[in-house]
Amino acid sequence: xxxxxxxxxxxxxxxxxxxxxxxxxxxxxxxxxxxxxxxxxxxxxxxxxxxxxxxxxxxxxxxxxxxxxxxxxxxxxxxxxxxxxxxxxxxxxxxxxxxxxxxxxxxxxxxxxxxxxxxxxxxxxxxxxxxxxxxxxxxxxxxxxxxxxxxxxxxxxxxxxxxxxxxxxxxxxxxxxxxxxxxxxxxxxxxxxxxxxxxxxxxxxxxxxxxxxxxxxxxxxxxxxxxxxxxxxxxxxxxxxxxx
Length: 244
Prior knowledge:
Elements: H1 7-14, H2 18-32, H3 52-65, E1 66-71, E2 74-82, H4 86-99, E3 105-110, E4 113-119, H5 123-126, H6 144-152, H7 154-165, E5 166-177, E6 180-192, H8 196-208, E7 214-218, E8 221-227, H9 230-239
Helix pairs in contact: 1-2, 3-4, 3-7, 6-7, 7-8
């Protein structure tokens, strides 16, 4: 272990629980007076290269259905994914691993959803939007370095937002044609979020990639963003598509 072999490998080789190996290692450091410094591959704190596409997707997921716990003995990023979309759960876990490979990633079953968690003190470095309270109760803005990455990979950012707080649905209507009523169906992308700032980030990015959108108000709350024009839906289909 002093040569840098991970606890997991040692535990597998000896057939001993990882917790026991970790305790042995901790006691060894304590006896030798060695200060423990957890290894990190945080792209903001090391020279590790950030995967921009994976980061943009994970940023969209975080702004929609994610949160960070940042306490002295509890640090993790959580993304909540509906169980009806197993592909989304896999994509969230893959994005976390591609952004930072060293932190452990796990899944926790919740009622109707799966919490994908990655444990590291450095997630706030990558998501400075983290803060106390709910996102829609505080200002959410991208930092300059984040905006540059989003500008380079707007579709990955949009896909993360749609996969968290959006959906692709099929609307229908009827028309009277030659005395007979016919049913017509058309696809539409919907996005709903209570945060004015997050909705603005979504709409601004849509505009940059040439997607036309409108705001649909339910009552007096303009929380819903709709993309319904044929050409714009085709663009969304080509780069995002429905959840899976």
